[in-house]
Structures are given as structure tokens and as C-alpha cells.
Amino acid sequence: DLHPEFLALWLDAVTFLFSARMIWGLDLKQEPSTRGGSRTMPKFSFNLLIGDIRDGYRFLREQPVVRAMTVGIVMAFAGVGAVISLGPIFARYSLHAGSAGFGYLVIAFGLGMGAGMATSNFFVRIVEKDRLFYGAMFGAALSLFLFAAMPAITWAAFFAVPMGIGVGLTWVTGYTMLQENVTDEFRGRTFATLTISARMTLFLALVVFPALAVIIGDHTVTVAGETLDLSGSRLALYVGGLVVILAGMLSKGGLKKSRLTRLRPLALVPKFRKMERSGIFIVFEGVEGAGKGTQIELARQYLASKGRDVVVTREPGGTGFGDRLRDAILDAATGKVDPRAEALVFAASRAHLVSTVIRPALAEGKVVLCDRFVDSSIAYQGVARGLGEQDILTLNAWATQGLFPDLVILLQVDPEESLAREPGRSDRFESEDLTFHNKVSEAYLKIAEEHPERFQVIDASGTRDEVQVRVREALDRIFEPSEP
After folding, report:
1. Full-prediction pTM beyond 0.85?
2. Bond from prior residue into 339 cis (ω within 30 degrees of 0)
3. Which run of H or E residues covers position 221?
């Protein structure tokens, strides 16, 4: 009865025991799966850790957009640290709410933070992400000022809710913008640096703000007969609010100066409409090594045996112009290419292929079999490269002038299995790590699930002939209505 917080501490101890039991039976020495088998991870060392941190901060210095967002998030953590470190003292001695008072504040703040995260998608529809990012900081700081000024636990808990909403919006929006503006090569390092910096700042805040409250001491001021409580915890909370405001101002200035890339849809609204044509357009999609080339050739032979006039093409490529783009974009010697430039190269090759090969063939009533098309760009550049599905879709709808396939045959196979089929390949995409190819595979399945009317998912894990039987069944379904 005298110390109800003991129960919470005992429950906390039980959670540690539960976690320990969950990992007790795991073999943590297993080597991770990679292309073509397993490899040994480098042994962890303190120097390696310091080197990674140093590389992360060097990257922040070179990337003003990422630096602005990271600094904003980290400084906002300092403001949150003020609430966490001073909350128990503030609740017990300034609000006279007893030892359980801080629990009410945490509940209110947690509810607000959850609401902020849950409503972030709604807010980004009406406010641009960068404005929402620093605007949420300013809102959280204002709520923190009001929170610190309250005389009773009820009002303090009331203002803890909007403060939590601001923190939740800041966190989600900041992480989203970092995902959109950092390439795969640096994404892991960026988020590792952010996580380390945020935690170090939080731990520092747990020391600095209580020390500041002690240094300030407790004071009261009488104004017009009213006694105002100016305790050290209140004034230190005000300082925390000022820190959050400073974070918002730095973020606003940095993002405005850096011209943050906004992944908004283009002016064109893509329309999946069937164009006036007498031919049939079929696309084969899948991860690297799924067997598209083999199955396309077998499909060509099958359709030709049924009297169909078949044109086979590929992309990028299929034309002299496209082949030169293909050589450049796939060659490993090309090195790192900006994801947006990569997407534009594919769209340029696709636009030329459509106007010079695919549309004329369809107009003549031919069957066009194409190795990759728009959906590959959505999976590779839109999802795996992090550019966003909507922008890639809209760009390619414009590039193809609204042409989309009648049927997409997705050869589905586990990326680890497909990459192991030909371990000697080394173009820019084939040399990507397994994580990248897993993202592509998952993106394909998601697209197929959302558009069942134009997708046929084929299990490509069997033999060549077994897969071809499944492909022929899919082809028969689309040609059967037009067969005499």
C-alpha cells in the first residue's frame, strides 16, 4: 500500500525473464543465408563499431536533407527525455498526485503517441511531409509548455495527449522521409546512426534535466495575491520545450534549404484501359533467375504451333536504342546509379519499345511476348529502391501512353533458390544482396494480389517442363475465348 510502484517493477522483472526464456533455445551462432550458400560474418569488435558510427556521421555531413531530419529527431528526443526524467518528480511534488501520478501522465502520453502514429497517413494527405514533420515538433513543444504550467494532474494529463500526438507524427514522418530520401546503400547506416544518436541523447537528457532542476531549485512568486509555483522541475520542462522548438527550427531551415524531394504523384492519372488493338500483349515477370527467358521461348513455340504470329521482345532493350541503354544500366562497371535516374532509363527504353515494336505488332494482330514491363519497374525501383509505387506507375503510364498487358505471367520462385541457379552472373541487379531480391519478390506478390484481373502467378520452382505446363494453362485461358 505504501509503495504501489513495486508491483510494476516486479512485472518488469518478469518481462526480462520471459525474454531470456524466449531466446534461450535459439542458435545465435547460425550463419545468415546469402546468395549461393552461406558466408562467415566478420567478428564483432569495438573498432568496427566505432568505424561504423564514424562512417554514419560522415554520411550525415555530406547529406543535408538527412542531416536536417536526423538532427530534428534527435533533439526532439531530448525534449521527450525531459518529460521522462522529470515526470515522476513533477507529478509527485508539483502536481501533488502521489507516486502513481506519473503513471497517468505516461498513459495519456502513450495514447497520444499511438494516435499520432495511427493518423499520420491521414495528415500526409492534407499536409506535405516536411511541413508536417517540423509542424508536429512545434505542436509538441507548445503542448509541453502547457503541460509544465498545469497545477493539477488532470490538466497535465490532458495536455500530455496532444504532446504525444506531436511526437508520434514527428517520429513516423521523419522515418518515412528518411526512407524516401536515402538509397539502399546507405539506409542501414543512416538508421543505425539515428538510433544510436537518439538513445545517447535520451540517456544524456535523463542526466541533464534532473541536474538542471536541482540547480534551479524550487521557487514561488506571488502575483496579485496568487502564488505561482516555479519549481525546478517546471522550469526544466520549459527548457525541454525550448529544445524541441530549436529542433523544429533547425529542421525547417535545413529541409527548406535542401529542397526535400517530395514523392507526390505526377500530373497524369494512370488509366488501365485496353487500347484499340487486335493483338494480345503478354508479359513475363519474376525475380532474377526465375526462368523467364526459357519460358518465353517455350511459350513462343507453343503459340506458333497453334498458328499464332508471335513477336518476342525484352526490356530494357528490344531496339537498338534500348539495347544500348540496357548495356549501360545493367553493366556492373557502371557502378552506383541514382534510383531516379535508373527509373528514367527504364521508362525511356520502354517508351521507345512500345512505340516502335509493341504497338505496331499489336495493331497487326500479333501476339507480343515481353520479358518484363511496367510491373518490374514498380517492384524494383518503386519498392526495392524506395521511390514509391505511385510515382513509378504514373511515370510509366505516361511513357507507354496507357499501354498495359492483357496478361502478366509472374514466375514465382524463392529468390535464394533462383539466385543459386546461376551463381556466376554479375550484372548490377543480379549482384544485389538477398534482402533486395526478397523485397522485389514480395512486391511482385503484392501487385499480383491487388490486380488479380491481369496477373497469373505460376510456381516456377519445378523443372522446366513442369513450369511450362502451368504457363500453357495460363495461356490457354486467355486465348480460349478467341479460338475458332
Report:
1. no
2. no
3. strand 219-223
Contacts of 374 (CB under 8 A, 6+ apart): 350, 393, 396, 397, 400, 404
Question: Residue 295 is placed in which grid cell?
Answer: 519460358
b/e burial code for range 28-66 (CB count within 10 A of at least 16 → b): eeeeeeebeeeeeeeeeeeeeeeeeeeebeebbeebebb
3-class state of residue 431 by DSSP: coil
Neighbours of 14 (CB within 10 A): 10
Amino acid code (one letter) for 465: D
Dist CA 5 CA 11 (whole Å): 10
Report the alpha-carbon distance of residue 298 to residue 284 in Å, rounded.
12
Each residue's pLDDT tens digit, 391-432: 898 899 899 988 889 999 999 888 888 777 766 667 788 878
HEC letters along 117-157 = HHCHHHHHHHCCHHHHHHHHHHHHHHHHHHHHHCCCHHHHH
Regions in the chain scoring below 50 on pLDDT: 33-39, 259-274, 482-484
Q: Is 296 exposed, middle or buried (0-12, 13-18, 19+ CB in 10 A)?
A: buried
